[in-house]
Amino acid sequence: LAWDNLTYHGLKAGSWVQTGGWLLLDAPGAWEYYRSFFGGGEVYTAWAMMFLRSDALAALPDLFFWLLMILVVSSLGIQSGLKKTTAFAVAAAMVCNFDFNRWVNCSYVDTPATFFLLAALFFAVHFLRYLRYVDACMVFAATGLGACIKINAMAASFIILIIFSVLAVKRISWGFTRYVACVAMFAAPVVQWLAFNFEITGYPLGCAPVKIGSLVLGSLPPNLEWFFNRPDLFPYSFHDELIATLEALFFFGFSLVFPIFSLAGLTNALRGNPAEFILKISLIAATFALFYSPAFSTIRLGWPDLNGRFIATAIVLLSIMGLHGLQ
Predict the structure, then answer these.
(1) pLDDT given at position 325
(2) Burial, 37: exposed, middle or buried (Cβ in 10 Å; 0-12, 13-18, 19+)?
(3) Mean pLDDT of all residues in 207-219
C-alpha cells in the first residue's frame, strides 16, 4: 500500500472502471487538485482491473514496466558500447535496487514514466545512427506516452524532442505527411488530458502554472498553495539540500557505484559520439534541473527519502554513459 495510491492513483483507476467514465474528484482538501493530475499512468492500472472486475490484478502493470526497465536499460548500455553481460549486470543492479523495487505493486506511475523516457532516448540514438523513420516514430510515441503520465515527465519529454529535432533535422528530408504523423503520435496520448483539464479548470495544465519571464500562465489552487507553503523548510540551504539529496540517493544502495565509476569515462563518451552525448546529457541536466527547481522545493525537502524516483532517469543514464572505457 502507498498513500498516493489510496488517495488518487488507485482511486482514479478504480473509479473509472466502476463508473465507466470520468470521476472529477470534486471534494474538499487535496482531492480538488488531484482531479487535474494527468492520468496516463493510472490508465494501465484501470485496464488491469477490467480483467476480473476487481483490483486483484491492479499491480500487474507495475511488474510489467519494471521488467521492461531491465530490457531498456540493458539495451541503452549495449548501445553505449557496453558488453552484453556488463549491460545486463548494470541494468539488473539498477532496476533491482530498493528504490526501484519499492514502487512495484503500489500503482505509483514513476516506473512507466521513467521507462518511456529511457525508451524514447534509446530510439532517438538509434535514429541518429541509422536514420530509420520507424525509430523517429517511436521517439515521438514514447515521449507522448511519458508526457501524459505526469507534468515533470512532460517537461523532460519536450527536452528530448527539442534536442532530438535539432540533431535530426539536418539528417533527414521527409515529406510533410511524415512530420505530421510523428507529431500526431506524440499528441494522441497527451491531448485528451490537456482537453480534460481545460474543460474542468480552464487551463490545460490544470494545477501546474508556467512562468516565462513576467508572463505567468495558470495558477495554483488555494489548497495546493497552502500545501506548498512550508515555513519549516529552507530551500537552497546547503545543509538541508545535502541531507535531502543523500536521503534521496540512499535507497539506490550499491548500484550507485556504477554512476560514480561512469563519471570517469564521460569525456570518452563525448569524444566517441558528440550528438548522442548531447542527447543523453541534456536529459540528465533536465532531470536534475526539474528536481532542484524552486517549484519542487517542498517535495524535495519535505519527503526526501521518497524522491529517488524523480532522479532515477539521470542515475540510470549516468550509470551507463561512461563505463565503456572502464570494462
Answers:
(1) 67
(2) buried
(3) 81
- HEC per residue, the chain: CCHHHHHHHHHHHHHHHHHCCCCCCCCCCCHHHHCCCCCCCHHHHHHHHHHHCCCCCCCHHHHHHHHHHHHHHHHHHHHCCCCHHHHHHHHHHHHCCHHHHCCCCCCCCHHHHHHHHHHHHHHHHHHHHHCCHHHHHHHHHHHHHHHCCCHHHHHHHHHHHHHHHHHHHHHCCCCHHHHHHHHHHHHHHHHHHHHHHHHHHCCCCCCCCEEECCEEECCCCHHHHHHHCCCCCCCCCHHHHHHHHHHHHHCCHHHHHHHHHHHHHHHHHHHHCHHHHHHHHHHHHHHHHHHCCHHHHHHHHHCHHHCHHHCHHHHHHHHHHCCHHHC
Q: What is the pLDDT of residue 214?
A: 79
Per residue in 99-131, pLDDT (tens digit) is 888 888 788 899 999 999 999 999 999 999 999
Residue 189 makes CB contacts below 8 A (sequence gap 6+) with 40, 144, 145, 147, 148
> 69, 111 in Cβ contact below 8 A?
yes
- Over residues 230-271, the pLDDT tens digits come to 889 999 999 999 999 999 999 999 999 988 888 877 877 777
**Looking at residue 327, what is its pLDDT?**
65
Q: Which of 312, 292, 323 is closest to 72 using CA atoms?
A: 312
Residue 105 and residue 60 in contact, taking contact as beta carbons nearer than 8 Å: no
For β-strands 215-217 and 210-212, DSSP reports them as antiparallel
**Residues 307 and 299 sit within 8 Å (Cβ to Cβ):** yes
| ∠ CA 236-239-242, rounded to 5° | 80
Handedness of CA 222, 227, 228, 234 (dihedral sign): positive
Could you tell me the CA-to-CA distances from 317 to 118, 122, 266, 272 in Å, in that order? 8, 11, 11, 16
Give CA–CA dist 46/69, Å, rounded: 21
Quote the pTM value: 0.93
